[in-house]
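Notes from hallway chat w/ T.B., transcribed later so I don't forget. T.B. wanted the structure written out for a chain they're using in a teaching module, and asked if we could keep both sequence and C-alpha cells in one place. Agreed to drop them here.
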Amino acid sequence: MTFHDLAVLRHPETFNRWTRTYSRHALPRVARAARRLIAVSEFTKRELLDLLDVPAEKVRVIPNAVGPPFSPEGDVEPGDYVLAVSTLEPRKNLPRLVEAYRRAGLNGMPLLVAGAAGWGGVTVEGDGVRWLGEVGDDRLAQLYRGARAVAYVSLYEGFGLPVLEAMACGAPVLAARNEALEEVSGGAAVLVDALDPDAIAAGLHEAIDRREELRRLGFARASAYTWRDVARETVGVYREAAA
C-alpha cells in the first residue's frame, strides 16, 4: 500500500464529512493489513509511525518523481505571470496566496491558478487573479516554463509534486516552509511562512529576483527524481512483500 500523505488524519477539518469518516476507519485497517507500506517521503513515513502506529520496519520510502512532459524543452506560455498549481480546497492556502499577491504589487503581473474545483467553498478572485481550471500535463508544463515564479504555499503536503514539476521545467519556486516541501525542494526553493501573507509577498519578489540561480538549483534537484528509479524500487518492495 502506498501512502501519499495523511492530511485527512492530521487536518480533518480541511476535508468533507464523508472523507473524514471513511478515512478515520479505513486507513488504520489498510495499514495493519498491508505486508509493506510505501511512503512518498521521509515526512510521510514519520506521519505513518505517529498517526497509524505502524512498525518502522514495515515502511519503505520511495519518493515521487518527474518526467516528460515536465522539462525545459517545449512550448512556453507567453507573457509575464506568477503561477499556482492547486486544487481549490482549504489545505492549499490559496486565499493567503491571493492576499500576498495583492500586497506584493507586481506591476500588473497576473496570478494564474491552475487546478480543479474542489471543496470547502474556496475561490480565487480579485484584480489580476485568473483561475484556469484543471489543465492537462502538456499545458501545465507550458505554464511552468513561462512562469516568472511558481508559488506553492500549501499548509500540509506529503510530498508536493508541483514543486518538483516546476523545477524540472525551469521555473523558480516559492514554497511553504513545512517538512515535506523542505525535503523535496532540498534548498532549491524560496521557503516562507505559509501563514504570513507579508512573508509570502516578499518571497514572490525574492523568487523572481533570484530566477536564474533558482533555475539552476531546481534543475539539479529535479534530476535526482526519476520514474525509472521509482518503478525499480517499487517492484522491489512488491517482491519483498510477496516473498
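Follow-up for T.B.: The longest strand covers residues 129-133. Might be a good example for the class.
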